[in-house]
Amino acid sequence: MRNQRWIEVSVGAFMLLGLAALLFLAFKVSGLAQTSERNGFEVQACFGDIGGLKPRSRVTLAGVTVGRVAAINLDHQWFEACVTMQLEDSLVNKLSKDTAAAIQTSGLLGDNYISLTPGIDEAWLAQGDTLKDTQSALILEQLVNQFISNSTRD
Amino acid sequence: MLDWLASLGRYGLNLTSAFGRSGVFIFQSLAGLPKTSEAFTLWLRQIYSVGVLSLIIILVAGLFIGMVLALQGYTILVDFGAEQALGQMVALSLTRELAPVVAALLFAGRAGSALTAEIGLMKATEQLASLEMIGVDPLRRIIAPRLLAGFVALPILTIIFTFVGVWGGWLVGVDWLGVDEGAFWSNMQSSVSFQADVLNGVIKSLVFALVVTWIAVFQGYDLVPTSEGISLATTRTVVYSSLAVLGLDFVLTALMFSNL
Known about the structure:
Number of strands of chain B: 0
Radius of gyration of chain A: 23 Å
Strand content of chain A: 25-35%
Number of domains of chain A: 2
Mean pLDDT of chain B: 90
Number of strands of chain A: 8
Largest sheet of chain B: none
Oligomer: heterodimer
C-alpha cells in the first residue's frame, strides 16, 4: 500500500479529472453555452429560407471551407433570416462587394452550408457588410411538389 | 419427485434469505456510518483502490470504443452522404448506453472481483471475527467505506469514459477520416441535451454503481470461508453484476428514453 499522501493526491486528481470531463460533456458535447472564437471578419446575408442551416455550419468558397455561420437572426421587417458569417482573415480585401451567397445541401441527406461566389465589383467586402445577392435553400419537398403539380397539369 | 420438489423449495428459501440478508447487510452498513476523519481516510483509500486504479482500463476501453464507433459509423453513414452526423451518433451512443454499461461491466471485473476476494479472504482468515472481538464493527470499518467508494467512483469513471470516447471518435472521424470539424461538433451539440442524455447517463451509472458494489461486497461478506468458496464468490460477483447491469440497463432505457 502506498503512503497516505500519494493516495490523497491521486484521489484528488481523479475527482478533478471527472469534473473536467463533466464540464467537457456539458459545454462541448451538449453545447450548454455556445463558445465562439472571435477571429476573422463578419459579413451578413439575408435569405428568404435557410432550410436546415445551423450556427457553426460551413461557409465555402469554390468548395473550400473558409468560414462558419456565427449567428442566425430573424429580420422583423421583411421576415427574412439574417445569417452572420465569420470568414477567415486571409480573405479581407480579396472578396468583391457583390459576392453572391447561396445555401446548398451536401449530398441528398447532408447538411446545409453557404456557398460563396465571388463577383466582379472593384470594391472589397469589409467587416459588417451585407451581401445583397443571395439564394435561399432548395427545399427538396417543395421541388418534388412543384414537379408533381407541373406534370399533372400537362 | 418429492425430492425434486424439496430441492426446489430449499433453493427458493435460500434465495429469499440471501436477498433478505443482503438487504439487512446494506442497511446496517449504511445506517451506522461513522463521521470521523478516520472514516474519511478509509473512504479515500478505497476510492484510490477501486477508482484510481481502474482508471487505466477505463481510459483505454473508452478510447478504443469511441474510435471503433466512429470508424463503423463512418462507413455506414458515408453511404448516405450523411457523415456529418457522425459526432451525433458517437456522442449519443456513448452518453446514453455504452459508457454507463461498459464502464459498469469493466468496474465489476476490475474492482468488484477485487472487493469480493479481499473481503472473502478477510473472512476466511478470521480478520472480520477478530475485529468484532476487539469491539470494532466490521460493517462500519470494512464494508461501509467500500460501498461508499464504489458509489462515488463508478459515476466518475463513467463520465471520464464518455469524455475519452468522444475524444477517440473525434480523433478517428475528424483527424483521420476527414469529417468536417464544425459539422461534427455542431451536430453533436444540437442533438445531445445535457439533462436528457448526459445526466440520464450519470443516473444510470449511479444505479449500476449501487448494484455492482452491493453485489461485490455482499458476496465477499456472505461466502463460505474456504479457498473454494472465495473463488466461487468472485465468479458469482462478476456474473451476477454483469447480468444485473445488462438487465437493469434495459429497464432504465425503457424508463428514460422511450417516452412511454
